[in-house]
Amino acid sequence: MHRLFQAFIDGLADSVTAQDLHRVLGQASAALDLSCFAYLSLPASRHQRPTLISNYPVTWTDHYLRRHYERVDPAISKVLATPEPFEWGPELAPRRLPEPQRLLLDEAAQFGIRCGFTVPIHDRRGPVAAVTFAADERHQRFERCIEEHGRVLQLMAMHFHAYAHRRLCSDHVVDGVALSPREFECLEWAARGKSAWDIGQILSITRRTAAFHLDNAKAKLGVRSICQAVARFAAAKRPPD
Description:
29% of the residues are buried. The strands form two sheets. Strands 2-1-5-4-3 form a five-stranded antiparallel β-sheet, sandwiched between helices. A hairpin with a 2-residue loop joins strand 6 (173-174) and strand 7 (177-178). It has two domains: 2-168, Beta-Lactamase (2-Layer Sandwich); 173-237, Winged helix-like DNA-binding domain superfamily/Winged helix DNA-binding domain (Arc Repressor Mutant, subunit A, Orthogonal Bundle). It has 241 residues and is an alpha+beta fold. It is 54% helix and 13% strand.
């Protein structure tokens, strides 16, 4: 376990993007025989979208975010109420759940998410977050892992949140990719229709320097053109429905 935890911390330290963080948490989860994981950081405002890093089926996570299920999810309701880790599942649920919560759990079960172990994270620097390790049933391996490594999982969740918050929750993040302040600024002006020459004039830098920052932004976002980078920028900054 010591080596696994050290590799996890080293992986977090080397992570830059949401994809990096996804890979690191996925590797640690797989090493512990925990197949499903999800990190959810609640937004500061109801008009913003939560930050989600998960290997749940994309069909489910897209549906979850689109329907704003974080507002009715019984596990998230408990996260808001307690800082202590907890298990959840059909046999642990209250006998009477509000209809929206019951329907959510029924839908999640269709995607193999029926029970789990959730670690709440109450961060005084930002919104509440949680890391969940889920399964399609409360099988023996899952129970043994939670029983033997519950506190380690809690520590891993707290470290993961600290790195995720630092990498993804700044004002210079576009679609999960952290840009430098100058890269972000140049891309922001490009999104307003300004050329590299225009941007240089506005920011009192040379056209070549502005183009350099735009090229760096393109590379980080994994696109080939400024138009594609601007499209990613606009989509990331658009308020959710």
